[in-house]
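Narrative summary of target 7.
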Amino acid sequence: MTVHAFVDESARAGSYLLCATIVEPAHLTPTRRALLPLLLRGGRELHFKKEKEPRRRMLIDRMAALPVTSWIYLATCAPKTEETARQRCLALLAQDLLGAQAHRLVLDSRDHRDAHDRQTLQRALGARPSKTELTYEHVDSTAEPLLWISDAVAWCVGAGGDWRRRASPLVTERFEV
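Modeled conformation, tokenized:
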């Protein structure tokens, strides 16, 4: 079965986490519909770092009940090497998505740094990416609610403790890079 992956990141003291939320095509629209009412009035996106603690608890608990899974890619790095850590995580994710016969990869846009991702994905997909049937694009998180899950899960896993426990129903794979 083909799947879609939605990717965001979290960086914390010496660790870089890349989170890919995996969604089956039949669950794309219902999951987006379940996320939109979680926005505060006038809000355009959920960004876990900006939320207050009680709201974070409610959000991750609601997300944990959705029909999605998340894969975590964790790299140890110094602050100045976060981009290198991201590209190592992304290269491994691309291989895993090919193995899962993924159809679409959506990454939270980082503006001018998106070029690094494109180079990594072009190398990972090889000289004939059209043969893989995996398409990818960078999208602003205000335009794609499914990116909010990856943002939340990456934040929770990075925070550890009770936050990691709350996100654990979503995390089905964890890779040390």
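The chain has a mean pLDDT of 92.
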